Amino acid sequence: MSLTVRFAHRFGDFSLDVAFQAPAGVTALSGRSGSGKTSVINAVAGLIRPDAGRIQLGETVLFDAERRISVPVHRRRLGYVFQEGRLFPHLSVRQNLNYGRWFAPRSPGESFDHVVGMLGIDGLLERRPGGLSGGEKQRVAIGRALLANPRLLLMDEPLAALDEERKAEILPYLERLRGETDIPILYVSHSMAEVARLATTLVLMDKGQVIRSGPAHEVLSDPENVPALGIRAAGASLQAIVAAQAEDGLTRLEASAGPLFLPHVDASLGARLSIRILAQDVILSRTRPEGLSALNILPATVMAVRLGEGPGAIIQLRAGDDLLLARITRRSALALELAPGAACFAVLKSVAVAQSEVGGAG
Amino acid sequence: MSLTVRFAHRFGDFSLDVAFQAPAGVTALSGRSGSGKTSVINAVAGLIRPDAGRIQLGETVLFDAERRISVPVHRRRLGYVFQEGRLFPHLSVRQNLNYGRWFAPRSPGESFDHVVGMLGIDGLLERRPGGLSGGEKQRVAIGRALLANPRLLLMDEPLAALDEERKAEILPYLERLRGETDIPILYVSHSMAEVARLATTLVLMDKGQVIRSGPAHEVLSDPENVPALGIRAAGASLQAIVAAQAEDGLTRLEASAGPLFLPHVDASLGARLSIRILAQDVILSRTRPEGLSALNILPATVMAVRLGEGPGAIIQLRAGDDLLLARITRRSALALELAPGAACFAVLKSVAVAQSEVGGAG
Amino acid sequence: MLDGLPGGLTFTLTPDEWRAVALSLKVSVWATLVSLPFGVAVAYVLARYEFWGKQALNGLVHLPLILPPVVTGYILLMTFGRKGFVGGLLDQYLGIVLAFRWTGAALAAAVMAFPLMVRAIRLAIEAVDPKLEQAASTLGASRAWVFATVTLPLILPGVIAGAILAFAKAMGEFGATITFVSNIPGQTQTLPSAIYSFLQVPGGDAQAARLVLIAVAIALLALLLSEWIGRAVARRIAGS
Amino acid sequence: MLDGLPGGLTFTLTPDEWRAVALSLKVSVWATLVSLPFGVAVAYVLARYEFWGKQALNGLVHLPLILPPVVTGYILLMTFGRKGFVGGLLDQYLGIVLAFRWTGAALAAAVMAFPLMVRAIRLAIEAVDPKLEQAASTLGASRAWVFATVTLPLILPGVIAGAILAFAKAMGEFGATITFVSNIPGQTQTLPSAIYSFLQVPGGDAQAARLVLIAVAIALLALLLSEWIGRAVARRIAGS
Amino acid sequence: LAGDITIFAAASMKTALDEVVTAWNAETGNTAVVSYAGSSALARQIQGGAPADLFISAAVNWMDTLQQDGLIKPETRVDLLGNSIVLVAHGAGAAPVQIAPGFDLAGMLGENRLAMALVDSVPAGVYGKAALTSLGVWDAVEPKVAQADNVRAALALVAAGEAPLGIVYATDAAAEPGVSVVGTFPAGSHPAIIYPAAVMAETGKPDAEAFLIYLSGAKARAAFEGQGFQVLKK
Ligand SMILES: Nc1ncnc2c1ncn2[C@@H]1O[C@H](COP(=O)(O)OP(=O)(O)OP(=O)(O)O)[C@@H](O)[C@H]1O
Ligand SMILES: Nc1ncnc2c1ncn2[C@@H]1O[C@H](COP(=O)(O)OP(=O)(O)OP(=O)(O)O)[C@@H](O)[C@H]1O
Ligand SMILES: [Mg+2]
Ligand SMILES: [Mg+2]
């Protein structure tokens, strides 16, 4: 199922004019504070009625200003994780979690126990939201949305209030959801790590406009987008197949450019994975380096060199069939005489490719 | 001024029992969701009255259960950025920002225009909080606390709702505040990057207890703390002196182990800096590697090897007078025969040391 | 029953007085309970909708507060009496007679108490954060369900406050009641009517005072109960 | 003044009637304004504090609602009359006489309207999120300042609702007023008393109806005004 | 002003008394104002120190009470007016009824109600009950009585047709087009219906007595009789 969004709306001084397509999978909305991300989600949810435009989910028109169609919010079958929680204060955590189920058509959906366990809120079920901590509230809100058995999941910075460990527990769940269902997920996040890991599609917003949108791996690996994404988020994805699980806890994958060793990846042999490599985690060398602790050394060819305004440079590489980005100093780029066509080696540490950036091939 | 906190309190099933010392500068409170961070801050603010214990700011006893002292909240001269905003809905943004000033003793304090500009809320001053975006609310809340001219700043995940760019604008401001004033800042954050950059002191909490506390650079560079901090946050600090600003935008610093080249550091020549190096950004080599894009290669000696449960290993190094941590695969550790006393070279990319991890020597 | 209090007051009630107490309770309870759903509905409509004639409805609801009770009583008599337009229809088609019945007393009490009830509930509804209602609707709850599962539980303290105000008012209502349904011992003689009777004759004060104390005791009990329920509800919402 | 309406009703008022209208307005406005600060204070105390005797205070406030108005009137007469305990003291030490003056009418109206006012304001206070008040106190505001700068502005719609309820009640108050201050034209004869007088004699109905319409018009106007202010305040709070 | 007097008078006298007051004010240039309310309320107010100069009660018992309390000048007390009670029926032109001992009032009522003022406390009700008792029909009628808080309300019940019959003062019945008088209770069947008047003990207004005398004058007599009161000779 795919979500098509195209609408314009004004509040006060702020005007919103967006159009994008969110296919099944995770569509990340990213952009500065106040750029209109929550407003877009609200329009999709039906909480804002845009001045003009059309929003369509699969075959269903949710909103059409011209044809004066607007499906009532409660018939849109949403799971909306609000930026500010919005738990029902008079209901226990359990009742909050079950709220959407009263209305959802009976269907297998998500298992209550599984969601609760994953979110670590087993101990809170009989409490009321009033006394919960910020992160606990946020987790209950996520659970409530997931359990509503939605056709469309809207998540507005769902993990912002959570610690890294908790995030690391929830992200794989969202990945699984992305892989197993065909419901579109609109996901607002300021964390490029999250975006890079989860997003199938990426929509970058600024001042109420969409400034870039498209498949996440394309948007993220386009050196032109580095300024918009922020330098620390730039990176590209390698496609690789799980080849072996070694005894020392490393997993060997085969990319088109050669073998990759990563900390244990929980995937079966033969599985095809997309591995995101941040530009700043890549070291380049003109000769194959020896005796380094970094295990992964891929031969590559320089495709493009983009010198930034600061002391850095972004180098786009081809490694086998994949494109990679490397961020190095301009001084090194000159010293190594990196120019389009130059052959070199890309060095990456196994541990730099953290768990959170290995995903099923989106 | 220093804040001494020691108290015990129970709500329902949850019991809190903490003791720590927060000297002038930033004391980061970190720990999993629900570990009691907000509760600690609330006790310091006087919003929770602990069952037992004592809280003292400089010479002033704020709370003493035995002596039945509890300074009323409004006399504690706080600037509290709440986890959930708590803006006054009936006041304009400007009035919200000025609220604390009505009550603060007239003193130079922070300049309104400066704070407003730094937070990027100039355009919102006449609006009411109702229509603000999540991040806008959060920024107004930060401004309100800063402008109250407090003797004690309490910040509960103040930057969680903000985009990276905005964070990059606010963090230097907080650093300046830390440097220029002697008010203690209690700072709750889940982001180790923020913590590492800002914190003078670090307090790690779990289940209502303080599990580690002490000067931030010590806590962060102790390999024993890696599990508690999360593997991606482990790292250590190098002390270095700004030696030269090169034309290509790099800054050369002198550490005791040798020169370091970093993307432009905004500090005057001779300034002493503390540079945080994440363990996962360090590559080790037994021989001095040549022809790499990484500019910084420091000779070091292995001090300790700590093999984790997974495929990773933490190596503690001495480089000159400083301690460093490196996180590599166990396989590499064996291949390179890294054992205490072994000489090696630590390779770090200039760009991996991002702006956010260079700080004035705390 | 407390006999022979020091002041010479005796609390032994005559059968008629007992009946007046029982009747007042019955009338007030029914007036409160039956009007409660209407009160909630009207309050909801006034709090949440804008429509043509809204201010007319609002004015109508407040009318019994503004009018001298006797006038309200007359209007009820003219409308709901057996010869009245609505009363006639009720009698003819539903067999419901209000005039000179306790049901009429309940109607009068309900009408007089209605503005108080509606105001309290309306204030409570206006205090509910519409964002919570929105959240419920994103989870699939239709407007009616949102009301039943979110709005109503959240306004419960206000509803209780409204109900108790209405009950107290109903216990004290006199002017409209006696004008509409008269004073028939055992059928429409409520406590206030009995008290009024005693006050009309010289020397009836002590007997009136006795009944006043009973009325006050009942109403205070109800008040205490409502405070207690309200507190329990509020505590539940705040989360232990 | 509308003369000669179709139904033969004439809206030319006699001087006494004008005086009754003017007096009712004066009495109601004073009753509302003077009791408002007390109403807010009592509502605040009831909403936010637990103390010994709280339920007694609560009961006392509600008493005028429970009692037949005549009884309230007599209690006022016995307490605040010139021969009453408080009335005697007031007369002797402050030179304030309430009985049979318009000030007494205002007192009666205020007392009768007080429970309504307090309930409305109390509900509004209970709906204010204490977290906002906490936030204000962390910024240095003492309890009084928190009240003035946060609580009060946030409860304004409730205060307005309470005031308007009280005003409407005061405009319609009759039983306690006529009992306490009698029905002296130009001095204590309010609109409802004048209406009552007309209703007591044959053929007075039309004149009574005329006055009822005037009373209703005034109260509805006040009601409209309060709705309008309330809406403006709510809009301000919601943000643009 | 010395010439201004305040009269406390039973509410049922308003129409006639207003006429008298207007005439008096015109003739003397003084101002007399009347506070109309129920006799019991007025009496209690006088007990509470009300600034009344003259009291005209619709019930003898309240005047007696005030006299016992020493609140009136006993020498000024007069029985000013008399009244009678009548049986009224709904609608104009109802057939007259013979009111005699044992007459079948209960039968005439059938399932319906007899409207009266409060039979134990409001004067008109007390007189009515006394009359029905002496005529021997009270026991049969009692369960069918609907008691209003005053005569006017009882009359309204009959006028509205809610009660087919009612017992009210002749003065009230005369002016109500919605009812017809179907019988008058014999004067002997109930205690005399008397409106006593007296000057207050504490009044400093000589005009009060003057007004009391004026009330027995020709103009006043015409006004009262116009409303159906009997003006009693001293
Ligand atoms: N009134 C209360 N009753 C019961 N438990 C409470 C109450 N208030 C807080 N708690 C519990 O105390 C624990 C600590 O809460 P606190 O808000 O301090 O956590 P936190 O460390 O700030 O978490 P987060 O990062 O999620 O904001 C939580 O588990 C919470 O559920
Ligand atoms: N009712 C309103 N009136 C005026 N401006 C509004 C209103 N609602 C939203 N805005 C403005 O629209 C802009 C977009 O808001 P939105 O909540 O969509 O931002 P966002 O991208 O979600 O930001 P954040 O990351 O801070 O949550 C903001 O500048 C906000 O101030
Ligand atoms: Mg947002
Ligand atoms: Mg918290």
Describe the structure.
The complex is a heteropentamer, with two copies of chain A (362 residues), two copies of chain C (240 residues) and one copy of chain E (234 residues). With 362 residues, chain A is of the alpha+beta class. Chain A contains nine helices and 21 strands. Chain A has two domains: 3-220, P-loop containing nucleotide triphosphate hydrolases (Rossmann fold), CATH 3.40.50; 235-360, RNA polymerase II/Efflux pump adaptor protein, barrel-sandwich hybrid domain (OB fold (Dihydrolipoamide Acetyltransferase, E2P)), CATH 2.40.50.100. In chain A, the strands form four sheets. Chain A has a six-stranded mixed β-sheet with strand order 7-8-9-3-10-11, sandwiched between helices. A five-stranded antiparallel β-sheet of chain A has the order 2-1-4-5-6, with helices on one face. A five-stranded antiparallel β-sheet of chain A has the order 14-13-12-15-21. Chain A starts with a strand and ends with a strand. Chain C is mainly α and 240 residues long. Chain C has helices at 15-48, 54-66, 69-80, 85-94, 102-126, 130-138, 143-172, 175-181, 191-199, 205-238. In chain C, helix 2 (54-66) packs across helix 5, helix 5 crosses helix 7 (143-172) and helix 6 (130-138) crosses helix 7 (143-172). With 234 residues, chain E is an alpha/beta fold. Chain E has helices at 14-28, 39-47, 60-68, 105-109, 123-134, 138-141, 151-159, 170-174, 206-214, 218-226; strands at residues 5-10, 32-37, 54-56, 78-83, 85-90, 114-117, 145-148, 165-169, 179-184, 193-199, 230-231. In chain E, the strands form two sheets. A six-stranded mixed β-sheet of chain E has the order 2-1-3-10-4-11. Chain E has a five-stranded mixed β-sheet with strand order 7-6-8-5-9, sandwiched between helices. In chain E, helix 1 (14-28) runs antiparallel to helix 10 and helix 2 packs parallel to helix 3 (60-68). The model of chain E has no long low-confidence stretch (mean pLDDT 88). At the A-B interface, helix 1, helix 4, helix 5, strand 16 and strand 19 of A face helix 4, helix 5, strand 16, strand 19 and helix 9 of B.
